[in-house]
Amino acid sequence: VDGNLAYGIDWSDIANITLVADQMDKLVSFYIHHPEIEPSGFLSMDIQRITQESVPIKKWCGVGTEMVAVGIDGQEYPCHIFQPLSLGNKARTSAQISFTDFTSLQDERCANCVLLPICPTCYGNNYLRDGNPAIRDKGLCTLTKVRALACSKMHALKLQATPVPNIKDEEEAAHQLRIIRAIKTIQASIGLTIQC
User: Fold this and answer.
1) Taking the CB of residue 192, how many other CB atoms lie within 10 A of it?
2) Helices 139-161 and 170-190, interaxial angle, to 10°?
3) Contact, 106 vs 134, CB < 8 A?
4) What is the rounded CA–CA span in Å between residue 64 and residue 139?
5) What's residue 36's pLDDT?
């Protein structure tokens, strides 16, 4: 079982962000003290992706390509959110959206964000909110930053708790260096420093 936060929460409200940040700190502490337990998906952002040059920005789900939702009338939709139950009359126009051309699903406002390679989005909720699957919910930006900070903190604490590794594998050494660079990049780009 994995957890995630629901859409529709006002992440611009400092009280909501403070609460989530506090809870994420507690989760990080828990996972550091229990390394035998795999962290939840919420704390499993692949932060090293932000340091890789020419990293392809990927689509976050199989909407319209690997996934299909079938309505009660037999009509196929790109995912459950695109069904009339969620979209009402907008469901008819959503059939014209191409989910195979990923470039049409990119929000230009996010093009220079350091977190873009690890920033999730829900194309169905974007469409429901703005009528365009590419327009990301900017309210989720703060939440994504809090998640990225918590993930970078967890990686930093794990690195500190590990004796200097005897890395014989160049690939593993390169991975560790990408993690360290990602920690620094996330902390610098978000403007917060994590005390380790």
Assistant:
1) 14
2) 130
3) yes
4) 25
5) 93
Name the residue type at position 123: Y
Q: What is the pTM of this model?
A: 0.79
The residues that bridge with 70 in the sheet, in sequence order, are 76
Task: Judge residue 151's burial from the number of C-beta atoms within 10 Å of its C-beta, 0-12 exposed, 13-18 middle, 19 or more buried.
Answer: buried
Reported as a single tens digit per residue, the pLDDT across 133-162 is 999 888 888 888 889 999 989 988 888 877
Q: Minimal CA–CA distance to 30: which of 170, 157, 141, 167?
A: 157
List C-alpha distances in Å: 1 to 23, 29, 40, 77.
18, 20, 9, 26
User: CB burial class (10 A; 0-12, 13-18, 19+) of residue 154?
Assistant: buried
